[in-house]
Design a protein that fits this description.
single chain, about 425 residues, mainly beta, Neuraminidase, six-stranded mixed β-sheet, five-stranded mixed β-sheet, globular, disordered N terminus
Length: about 425
Amino acid sequence: MNIGLKIGLLFAFTTVAVSSAQNLSTLYTFQGGTDGSGPDSTLIADSKGILFGTTQYGGGTACGGLGCGTVFSWSPISGESVIYRFQGGADGIGPNGGLALGPHGALYGMTTVGGGSGCGGSGCGTIFVLAPPTTPGGSWRYQQLYAFQGGSDGAFPNSYLLQGVAGILLGVTSEGGGSGCSGFGCGTLFELLLPGNEGGAWTETVLYRFQGGQRGASPNFGLVPVGNGTFYGVSSNGGGTGCDGAGCGTVFQLIPAGTSGETWTERTLYSFQGQAANDGAFPGGVPAVGKDGVLYGVTGAGGSGCAPQFGCGLVYSLTPPASGMLWRETVLYRFVPQWFEPRGAPILDSSGALYGVSSTGYGTYGMVFKLSPPVTDGGWTETLLHSFTDGTDGGLLEGGLLSIGGVLYGTTFVGPSHCQCGTIYSLVP
């Protein structure tokens, strides 16, 4: 049964454009050299309010002169500092998907490629940890925890990690795990276990291998813990035969083994149909969990405009069923060519409003938006918080938003003036 057929649509929404350039502050402009270039993941923050993120490029002259990427920090006192510059060897290339903050201030992350000679020579990706300095002014210490081999263990991680009990790390890879999906494998759910003795090797165990087809393929962006050891996530493809046969993606739940000998179970909550149902295509980030278990997320395509077969993307909600297995999708907002390709997980505030970003647009370079829930029987209302210009504010937003005390923080992938450098910004809604 295709459980993505029950669709509720809301068409009555209002767009309210608000000039808010005075509320956006550019905190740092990357220079594209040793300081990094192309930040493309959602920022995280520690208890002191220091921001941490990654750049896809920069940091040196390796990797064809572009640089292999960096991990950086930013604070109001010291500004931007590079924590680590990737060299393109065993340490990996292109940290992507974001960081996770571990005990004692350690940073965990993954690189999409590198770490070996597999996967066509580019390497299949790595998992790493950066330990903070032991003395003030000292250097962060890099350690590779695991290098993917590209077979049954997975390949090309493109997400953040979660830290479970006893230091266990959980994550997903976008490919590998089997022979499906054109022979590359459809992706994996894995855990990484601490070594049994000091200095020993970490152990990777695949908990679930995605099947492709109706079950979804290429899990990206990470996982959302929802209690009882279960997780929500999204797959970029699969779920049906739409979107030129590749499938338009799914929202899924992963349920852990109940007893010895059982395996993890994947439950498809919703399968996007693309233009066939005008319900969205290609999820742009993991969903946020709201009141009564309702999920809120974005798709990078689908809806209408931009291209007849794809659409500009949309914001959706998924309401859990009272009984049975059918989740109900409601389209909250459809993007237009001026702003399209929403990215990241939406942020929910106490009033039920959603905050998010679009990556780009025709004649613009992305935006930060707010969607307010209906007051009566009307539709959701969109408020434009900032439209990026590729000037000093940068442009092209690849990562989502971080909220600290009501202030929104994010990065732009480029800018100013088309430089593939990028910025860190803050925005007061």
